[in-house]
Amino acid sequence: MSEARIIKKYPNRRLYDTAISRYITLEEVRQLVLDNRSFQVIDKRTHEDITRSILLQVISEQEQGGDPIFQTDLLKHIIRFYGDPMQGTISRYLELSMQMFLEKQQQFADQLRGMLGRAEQPFYQLRELAEEHVPIWRTVRREFLKNLGRENEEKLLPKSNGKREQSEG
């Protein structure tokens, strides 16, 4: 894989792509992502990596369009997880869910291509395929809820002061 493109963000908020020697827009950054191109955005003044911040701006711009991915309630839930003991868990859960979704999407596309290549009953096979993936999603949801319950129990339990432990024994 080629080396990551460097994009410099200047104090005037403009993004300069050093690979093509010109200023680019957030839409062009989005296109780099769509093209699966490796890049890094560096703040020209502080030399900090601000790639995440720029990607969040791209998402924000896309969300302002007509068909957002993140509904208002979901965004509120995500905001509530910042600083919460479950922050790491929700982050990992979302990451694993996305990975599994992408893997299953690829498998589904491969299987669909195979089914459409045959003159057999494609709708029956599609139903079987969907039923095959339901237990996987149920397992992911069950594990998440189990971890969520465990964290909530820990928050609700009073701090141990020795008296409770003695009375139980």
**Which regions are unreliable across 5 or more consecutive residues at pLDDT < 50?**
162-169
Helicity, in percent?
55-70%
- Counted by DSSP, the helix tally is 6
How far apart, in Å, are the first and last alpha carbons?
A: 62 Å
Can you list the strand order of the major beta sheet? 3-2-1-4
Indicate the structural class.
alpha+beta
- Overall average residue pLDDT: 83
- List SSEs in N-to-C order: EEEHEHHHHH
Number of strands: 4
Strand content: 5-15%
**How many whole angstroms does the radius of gyration measure?**
23 Å
Shape call: flat
Largest sheet: 4 strands, mixed
Task: Provide a short characterization of the protein structure.
The protein has helices at 26-34, 51-63, 72-81, 87-116, 122-156, 163-168, and strands at 5-9, 15-17, 22-24, 39-43. The protein is an alpha+beta fold.
Question: Secondary structure elements and their pairing?
Answer:
Elements: E1 5-9, E2 15-17, E3 22-24, H1 26-34, E4 39-43, H2 51-63, H3 72-81, H4 87-116, H5 122-156, H6 163-168
Parallel strand pairs: 1-4
Antiparallel strand pairs: 1-2, 2-3
Task: Note down, in words, how this protein is organized.
The chain is α+β, with helices and mostly antiparallel strands. It contains 6 helices and 4 strands. It has helices at about 25-35, 50-65, 70-80, 85-115, 120-155, 165-169; strands at about 5-10, 15, 20-25, 40-45. Strand 2 (about 15) and strand 3 form a beta hairpin.
